[in-house]
Amino acid sequence: MTSGPRSRSRVSSFAPAQSLPSGRAVEVRSRDGIRLHAEVFGREDGYPIVLAHGITCALRVWAHQIADLSRDYRVIAFDHRGHGRSAVPVRRGAYSLDHLAADLDSVLETTLAPGERAVIAGHSMGGIAITSWAERYSERVTERADGVALINTTTGDLLRNVKLLPVPAPLANVRVRTAGTFLKTFGAAPLPRAIHGPNQRFVSMLAVGRDADPAIASFVHELFAATSPVGRGGWARTLVDHLGPRHIELHNLVVPTLVIGSQKDRLLPLTSSRRIAEAAPNLRDFVELAGGHCAILERPDEVNRHLRGLVESVTAERRISS
């Protein structure tokens, strides 16, 4: 096991991330002993909001949400294993949906007070962490969550929906197999400086909309490049191999659920978010935004407004019920 790269110094050119105040660092130990890095922002006595980022990112990808929400709430963000300032397991078996769920549970156990509940928001793989957690830790959902937000994410059919290249319907299965092989190989590959330009264009095509600020595309690629190839590869294999025709079950996700999808999302298209909204047992709201996969960066004001609305609604319900 080795320590992950310190992403903060590698992504300092993105103004919102650069201007964030320092959070209070919290070390979390996963069930299998992996060290996870978390930070707490805002008022220590504030209502907690927990943020889980996507693959090849780090907690600073939530820069807009941390800056806004921490003015009124206690914001807890963490780096997944293999990302940011969390440790990078070298064993192939240390990456799975079981680990993704257990790591989130460890973060909640460490950062929340006994009996305390939070709104938990996940973007992309962070959303997969939430639904995997709910599927595996059903008794913990109502113990630790007042509500959840699933942003630009999926519960299955990852490769069938990803929009790399359009192909005729008879070749759809070939496209799925090819895309899976490519994403696993690409995710684990080192990044020689000679391919920086093409690599950035490809990452940007998947991660952000065509009309996104170039600074956002650059920031997303810097996060990608700062992520260890071991961590990238481990999670790419996990998602490709385990998010096939069988979808993560949502019947345990009984708390109010906000679902946000983006109209031009190439990586996890809007159809994925619509399916989640249809399957969620306690859908609070389904929101379609303009832009690409990184709504938290491309449409931060709208995302923040809906997150605040979810927090206000669940805390109001708690006051009434008590």
From TrEMBL:
The protein's matches in InterPro entries, at most eight in alphabetical order, are given as:
AB_hydrolase_1, AB_hydrolase_fold, AB_hydrolase_sf
User: Where does it sit, as one GO cellular component term?
Assistant: membrane
Per UniProt, residues of the AB hydrolase-1 domain are 47-300
Q: Which Pfam families match?
A: Abhydrolase_1
Q: Which GO terms describe its molecular function?
A: hydrolase activity
Task: Give the source's domain of life in one word.
Answer: Bacteria
Instruction: Report keywords, A-Z.
Output: Hydrolase
Annotated TM spans: none
List the PANTHER family hit by this protein, alphabetically: HYDROLASE, PUTATIVE (AFU_ORTHOLOGUE AFUA_2G14860)-RELATED (PTHR43798:SF33), MONOACYLGLYCEROL LIPASE (PTHR43798)
Q: What is this protein called?
A: Alpha/beta hydrolase
Protein source organism: Mycolicibacterium novocastrense
